[in-house]
Amino acid sequence: MHHSSHNKVPxxxxxxxxxxxxxxxxxxxxxxxxYHATSVILKQSADQQxxxxxxxxxxxxxAIYQSGARSTELMAQQRLMNATTLNERLESLPYLATSxxxxxxxxxxxxxxxxxxxxxxxxxxxxxxxQKRFNPPAGTMWIIQSVTHPNGKAHGEYLFxxxxxxxxxxxxxxxxxxxxxxxxxxxxxLNFHQLLVSAPYFxxxxxxxxxxxxxxxxxxxxxxxxxxxxERINEFLLRHKITPDTRLALLDQDERVLASxxxxxxxxxEADGKTVLPKLMSYDAPVLKHFLGMPQGKAxxxxxxxxxxxxxxxxxxxxxxxxxxxxLQLVMATPHRELMAAAIKExxxxxLVSAFIIAFGLMVAVWLARRASKPINDLTSEIQKIxxxxxxxxxxxxxxxxxxxxxxESLGAMKTTIQHFMELSQALAAETNFGRLxxxxxxxxxxxxRAEGGVIFITHADGQHIEAEQYFWQSxxxxxxxxxxxxxxxxxHVIAQALQNQQILRTISPxxxxxxxxxxxxxxxxxxxxxxxxxxRDGTLVGVLALIxxxxxxxxxxxxxxxQTIAATAAVAVDTQRLINEQKVLLExxxxxxxxxxxxxxxxxxGHCQRVPELTKMLALAAQKQSSGPFADFxxxxxxxxxxxxxxxxxxxxxxxxxxxxxxxATKLETLYDRIHEVRMxxxxxxxxxxxxxxQGIANGGDAHELQAQLTQERDTLDEEYHxxxxxxxxxxxxxxxxxxxxxxxxxxxxxxxxPDRIGISHEEKERKAREPEAQLPVxxxxxxxxxxxxxxxxxxxxxxxxxxxxxxxxxxxxxxxxGELYNLGVARGTLSEEERYKINEHIIQTIIMLEKLxxxxxxxxxxxxxxxxxxxxxxTGYPKRLKRDEMSSPARMMAIADIFEALTAIDxxxxxxxxxxxxxxxxxxxxxxxxxxxxxxxxxxxEGLHLEYARRFMxxxxxxxxxxxxxxxxx
Length: 972
Known about the structure:
Hypothetical protein af1432, 45% helix, Beta-Lactamase, 28 helices, alpha+beta, 6-stranded antiparallel sheet
């Protein structure tokens, strides 16, 4: 942008406008000084108001307590202490009614005699608790509670009087058996003429919390008392809230709340059964707690506290020392804003005139400053557009100021440069294909530098060698037909110089050009070579960019600096993309390492983890090619293909947790070894015992012929029985109920053990044997048994709650393993017990748990779902989440079919022969009818000939037979 230099006014002339701001500054300083002085006066006034309110509140509390003490002391000298009957005590009713009437804080006065008699007069004001307790008749003003002992037995009754002290009703209550001598306040009888003030407690008659003033009568035959409800104290205290949000608390010496702004506190029951008032910290916000911690003193010791919300509070804590009582504390706090609200309003009114004058001067100053600063504001708007990456419009600023015009020109040039740089940086950052990234770098840098051609070299992983990866010539980007086998010596020399920042731009002859860049067409004249090292953030060389430039189009110094900046950005993009590629290669190798380890772990899995991914991707690719039917909309982008690939390779990663002796279990008694050898040895012992018994019988004069015949029969029986047990151990035949019965019959045989079985064994096995007491040797044991030591307890870690976070819906056996001999030999089918079969099936649970623990990036978040769904069934009876078809993704359903087909046709399983093509498809056809696998995917699998393609790659020729797929094709 260019502006004429005529009629420009130097910027210093406009400095005169600053004087207006200076004048306004003086006005503001003067106004602030007035504001500050006024604020000090207002705060002093508010503090005085706060102190007066606090003092009045203390006087109220003292009056309440003095009222209770005074009433009690007077009553201790009243003639009521000598009354022995109810009628004599009723003569003092006018006195007590008058005392209660003129002591509003006191709700009841009473006397308890050493005979157990009790007389109480209370005020009735419609309190709900009293109403519920006594249900007084209409017009009741006074309620009298009386306990006398006319015949040595407690006689309780209630009397109800109206305001004129006329009796309304009299009730006898046999249940009212109150004994005053059992109450804590009766302890005042032990302290002659000394006032006793109780801790807060629940009144027996009303159930309401309060305190009692008690004192021994002058005749020393009774104790009188006055009750004050905490609610009354709270009512009187709240009269002194000077603002709506004033906070008050009356505390005892243990900081327990007697009354507060929140209302009457509820007594709480502690662990020892005592009822106490709540502590301040558990009852209210920390505002009052702060002032409680301030130094105790007189009312003038108010302080200020800033809460976490930033609000200022004015508060203080005061001691209240009353005769015959533990010291009390009054804590009071008021928000500063409420305390000074009225004063601030008055101050603001007085400053309104000053503010109006300042506002008028400010408007004049703003008008003048706006005229002077408009060009600067325009430039500021342009800078904000740059900050917001808005580069679409050219900079236009109208100004007569020379300095601002020059600034606008420089800003326009900077805007253009940044725009170009940002576009190029975004393009490089967005490119995910390494080859396209290199081609884009060459194309962009070639265009900026106006180069004829160029070559980009990339360093090897060892950092010692460098090879050409991409080149272009005459602005036509091309891909190198393979990597160059070597780089000419001259090129390496140029690269070394570039790294040392020497001769970055140099002239080369046609001969040198041909030697350095054999990939490019030969040159006919001298050219300039611009060599730029591509260095990452760590200063490591990741590549070199060599651009060939015509001498007539050599870039300027500014343009050369721009090219170097772009090259630095390109180096970061190259390094980042290469690092991502290397990480993907590492991840892929790690995944295949795990899958290979699982396949190598047991001969029963073979190459399963490697073949299932192949078949799964074959199904996904076939589905993606469909233009009609159920898979017309099925499509996977590059990231989803990566997701499917990883999920397929890791679909059985949980098998690393499955013990080999469970997976490879060939017989029913096999664990780490086959325990049939122990059973055989017991039979050998029984045969030896039979032979010994025979010879002992002969030695003792028995019939040798008969004994020998019995021995032969016993041997044959034992041999036949062992043969039966050994056959059961093989697990080849179905264990019918009659076989199980015979097994139990044989197990009932016994043999004699003379050696201890708890020595020379592992600590874990010792703990299992310790579940039963050790038998005294020699001991007779069953030939086969299910012992407590055979149970391996399932730990809490291995249990699954119904609401487990993974949503597994499986029946978990009670025990981890049950190695009972009868239990295992009685397995109906195969060799696996319920616990062992669960352990094998558990691999898919472990797969999901392991995969969900991995921090997969967002585009791979479905890996656990795809990998963990290949044992689910379309009808919701599958494993482990019982998902139905609609709850599973298409890739997960594809993997289920791939997993089953691979397992049926695998030829590397030592325990079975691989099924033929027709057998496998027939079995899967039954699974379609049972709604175990997806019929649409299975139809696609067959109609696209994937079964034949897989068979040719992974099955033996003799397995590939003729098969009719028409019954399974949905549109057939």
